[in-house]
Design a protein that fits this description.
By secondary structure, this protein is mostly helical. The protein contains five helices and no strands. The protein has one domain: Ferritin (Up-down Bundle).
Length: about 160
């Protein structure tokens, strides 16, 4: 590919890559917050939440790899490192302290909503730019987070 063709391709994929970097950072932040909830949750729902949070953060670990590899597939470098990813994410962190289990769940609902919004932006950008592979990846991720939101919200019902 000529330098001009490479530059044109990079320019056309830049909005996709930028949106994927946000998805990557938000997903990594959610992974971290879910892991913290897994470690620190207490109370009568400990066993069920501890197991549910583990299932979620393990799934997210695979997902961030898929997202980072999609960025590489678009011939860009994936951001990494906690400081860099934190600067790219709008997800807030919980302090390591005793809080009710329902507060962990509520926080993870907020985090999943942020990731969902990032995913929808990336999906729409990919569709607009004619990148069905990225669009498909984002649709799959949206389904995962919609299911997680359903489960987390269901836990909070009638509390």
């Amino acid at each position: 590919m000529s330098k001009t063709a490479t530059a044109t391709k990079a320019k056309s994929t830049k909005p996709i890559v930028d949106s994927l970097k946000t998805v990557l950072a938000d997903s990594y932040a959610l992974l971290g917050q879910t892991h913290i909830a897994h470690w620190n949750v207490e109370g009568p729902a400990f066993f069920s939440l501890h197991a549910a949070f583990q299932t979620q953060y393990e799934e997210l670990f695979i997902a961030v790899d898929d997202i980072a590899e999609r960025i590489r597939g678009l011939d860009e470098y994936s951001p990494g490192g906690l400081k860099t990813l934190a600067s790219l994410s709008s997800i807030s962190e919980l302090d390591a302290e005793a809080i009710p289990a329902k507060d962990y769940v509520a926080h993870l609902i907020e985090c999943n909503e942020i990731v969902g919004a990032s995913l929808r932006t990336a999906r729409d950008t990919a569709a607009e730019k004619g990148d069905p592979q990225t669009e498909d990846l984002m649709i799959g991720r949206i389904q995962v987070h919609d299911k997680a939101l359903w489960m987390l919200r269901s836990f909070l019902k009638n509390l």
